[in-house]
Design a protein that fits this description.
alpha+beta; 15 strands; 4-stranded antiparallel beta sheet; globular; Creatine Amidinohydrolase; single chain
Length: 247
């Protein structure tokens, strides 16, 4: 069931999104060679608490940290650790959720550490571009599957592949709500967008094969062929005439 948000709920989501922006800015600024992913997690949790908010991911289905930090061939859900040190050339995916006034704001970024290879620069750029092209399809009355169609089209144009086993989702009172939002065209998905829907749009793109697998830690998702992966996500409100990004 899709939960259409009231004006007061949307205002709370905007406030959660503002906190998210502040914390994500700190994480991106801090993500440099020599720092550990565990330190980044500590920065996030400390900052989120200072705003009077909570980390959406901490304890979610048993997840042990406040953020996800996924490196290189890791697609999503990487677990921060003081033993994982960032090095120049790494491609880091930061995923952060903020819970404030009973609403979750969810978004993520791909960050190059130091100087990264040209193909990784392109991978990250195309992934972000796919998001911006896709959200042009967000307005009341449009079918939801136009989002995935746009993402898949951009990614294929550049010779990369869209991860098919992981998808975007609704977001709000719960971290994951209906509807499901694949990053590829699914003709059977004919849900129509409505004003007040709140969506986490998150293209996940691999340099090689789209196929992924889960590591033995029960969380980290990696590309099967070991190729690098990039990711870009924002929480988006469907408005009367289009969309509003809150993260």
């Amino acid at each position: 069931m899709i939960n259409i948000k009231s004006p007061s709920e949307l205002e709370a989501l905007r406030e959660a999104g503002q906190i998210h922006q502040e914390v994500m800015h700190q994480l991106i600024f801090s993500a440099k060679a020599g720092i550990s992913t565990g330190e980044l997690d500590h920065i996030a949790e400390t900052s989120i608490r200072a705003f009077g908010a909570k980390a959406s991911f901490k304890g979610y289905n048993g997840f042990p940290a406040s953020i996800c930090t996924s490196l290189n061939s890791e697609v999503v859900h990487g677990i921060p650790s003081p033993k994982r040190i960032l090095h120049s050339g790494d491609l880091l995916k930061l995923d952060l959720g903020v819970f404030y006034r009973d609403m979750h704001a969810d978004a993520g970024r791909t960050v190059g550490i130091g100087e990264i290879a040209p193909n990784l620069v392109k991978l990250a750029k195309v992934t972000e571009e796919a998001f911006w092209v896709a959200i042009k399809n967000i307005k009341p009355g449009n079918q939801l599957n136009l989002i995935g169609k746009a993402i898949e089209s951009i990614v294929k144009q550049h010779g990369f592949s869209v991860v098919r086993d992981l998808i975007g989702h609704g977001v709000g009172h719960d971290l994951h709500e209906d509807p499901e939002i694949p990053n590829f065209f699914r003709p059977d998905q004919k849900v129509k967008l409505e004003q007040g829907m709140t969506l986490a749009i998150e293209p996940m793109v691999n340099l090689g094969s789209w196929k992924v697998k889960q590591l033995k830690d029960g969380w980290t998702i990696v590309s099967v062929d070991g190729s690098a992966s990039a990711y870009y996500e924002n929480t988006v409100i469907v408005t009367e005439n289009g969309y509003e990004i809150v993260t």
